[in-house]
Amino acid sequence: MISFEDVSFTHDGAQSAILRDVDLTIPEGDLTLVIGRTGSGKSTFLNLINGLVPHFTGGTLRGRVTVAGMDTRTHPPRDLAGSVGTVGQSPRAGFTTDTVEDELAYTMESLGFAPDVMRRRVEETLDLLGLTTLRRRSLDTLSGGEQQRVAIGSALTAGPSVLVLDEPTSALDPAAAEEVLAAVHRLVHDLAITVVMAEHRLERVIEFADHVVRLDGPLRLEEPAQAMGGHGLQPPVVRLGHALGWDPVPLSVRSARRLAQDLRHSQPTAPARRPAGKQVADVMSATVRFGQITALADVGVRLNRGQITALMGRNGAGKSTLISLLTGSRRPQIGQARVGGTDPADLQGRQLLERIAYVPQDPTDLFYTDTVAQECADADADTGFPPGSAWNRLTALVETVDPRTHPRDLSAGQQLALALAIQLSAATDLILLDEPTRGLDYPGKAVFGQWLQDLADAGSSVLVATHDVELVAVIADRVIVLADGEVVTDTDVRSALTSSPTFAPQIHKVLAPLPVLTVEEACLL
Predict the structure, then answer these.
(1) CA angle at residue 483 from 480 to 486, to 5 degrees?
(2) Which domain range does residue 394 map to?
């Protein structure tokens, strides 16, 4: 179905190939998971299948990639569109119409399908992906999981035999991610569509994979269990299996739970998290409306020094809106926000830099220069840190970054790492992070988590809006959950994560009812 024959690819201006000597075949009806460190070439691998590499990216391609008998070198993406459907990391960025029904029809219109065929396939796709009740909805009103399913549906209506997905769950809450993965599972098993997926959050997807391609090792098709050894890209349940010597190592919570029956009778010692320090920020009875939509409804939140607070909730629950009040980019219609006793909207210049550090969902908003090296140098100059400090922080998060690269030409994970490196330079009063682990691999998240803990220990208050329950389990002291713009939970991390099946991390699911959250805690049993 998909064949790589001695394939190497080098980006224009790069000193070495990002992919080298790839020789493998992905069979029909397979769900193949592509894994690797941040910036290792996962998106490049996927775009070799749909023809975007090299037709749109440029660069030097050696070897041969064939999909359904077509050589991607001689067939541009338009020729491949009927056989290969693609969904990028940000489905919203790829939408071209206003409503669900129109978006599902758009690809077929572009390819010149007959109207009666278009109508039939739209109806079939609405049923297949559970979108029937949303058919006339505006795309802007959909949740993240609904948008992702619409993006997959738009790719499917052309009748492709291959579906390429680039981190389809990275921006989704746990429930929405389950919806998307259930849809993908059905496409593979019911329709025999070949799915090639890149994903960092392996705890969500590894149990569904038929094969794995590792980009940090010998590039070959491997069985999932075999591919989970000898590197740092293991989800928590796999790390637990390795730590406890389980053989075979489990890939799912169900398998691990069967092996952990004796552990569940242990007496756990729950390590204490950081206590709350002096108040740093306060959101008081805040209400924010966008037209007829209430994004926040009478929300009150206090943030304290020396503490990491996780802000959680479904896509669209109001997390980013709450953060915008604390950054000063928006004032509530009712209520107020204060950072150090001051309205954050009134902070400017050096006073703002000393009080608030902020990394938005789109890190490119923070980039102003033409190279990675210059971004790092400017960050050091602004903060007074020694030259090279920001660069060292960046390379601690990601292995390979060319300092001459334009920041907007980096992979999504590398862009995030650069934003974190230039923003998290000092222990400001308040650190605000909106989905900060999208695109980061497990080793990068471990380094990032240690940064946050060091900053909290130095006296900062850290607020992390995230869907990454595994990160929260490791670093957070407190959890605030929003639903429909209201605070529904505000408690310590252990109580929050062990009382919710939606937000429970893998290790707690394995060892419940024990209040254990992490691999490290489980190994103390």
Answers:
(1) 75
(2) 279-506
